[in-house]
C-alpha cells in the first residue's frame, strides 16, 4: 500500500515548523537548506511559510489530500521527523489527526495501513 502521507500533506500546511538554528547551518553539520528558513527567536528558525496566518511549508509540493511530497525529505528537520502519521506505528497521532481534520480530511485508521481485513 502507498504511504498515506503521499496523498495528504496536511501537517506541512498546518503547523509552524520551528527547530534549532544548527539544523540549517552547514558549518556545524546542519542539513536543512538555510535559504528555506527564517529566524524565529534567538536560537530557532522556522521553515519559510509555516509562520504565516495560513501555514504552508516552502518545501511542500502538494495538493492537500490528493498528492504530497517534501522537496527536502531526506534532509528535513528533526521536528518534521517527530510527527508520525496516525497508526503508522500502531497508535493514533494527535498532530496528524488535528492537521487532517483542519483540511477536511478524515483521520487515518488502522485500515489505511493494513486493509479492512487485517484491521478488523
From TrEMBL:
Tree of life domain: Bacteria
InterPro entries (UniProt xref): Puta_zinc/iron-chelating_dom
Protein's name in the database: YkgJ family cysteine cluster protein
Organism of provenance: Novilysobacter erysipheiresistens
Amino acid at each position: 500500500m502507498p504511504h498515506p502521507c503521499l496523498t495528504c500533506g496536511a501537517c506541512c500546511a498546518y503547523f509552524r515548523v520551528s527547530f534549532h538554528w544548527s539544523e540549517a547551518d552547514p558549518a556545524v553539520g546542519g542539513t536543512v537548506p538555510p535559504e528555506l528558513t527564517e529566524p524565529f527567536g534567538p536560537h530557532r528558525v522556522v521553515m519559510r511559510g509555516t509562520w504565516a496566518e495560513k501555514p504552508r511549508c516552502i518545501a511542500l509540493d502538494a495538493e492537500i489530500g490528493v498528492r504530497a511530497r517534501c522537496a527536502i525529505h531526506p534532509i528535513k528537520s528533526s521536528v518534521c521527523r517527530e510527527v508520525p502519521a496516525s497508526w503508522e506505528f500502531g497508535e493514533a497521532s494527535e498532530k496528524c489527526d488535528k492537521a487532517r481534520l483542519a483540511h477536511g480530511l478524515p483521520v487515518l485508521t488502522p485500515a489505511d495501513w493494513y486493509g479492512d481485513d487485517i484491521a478488523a
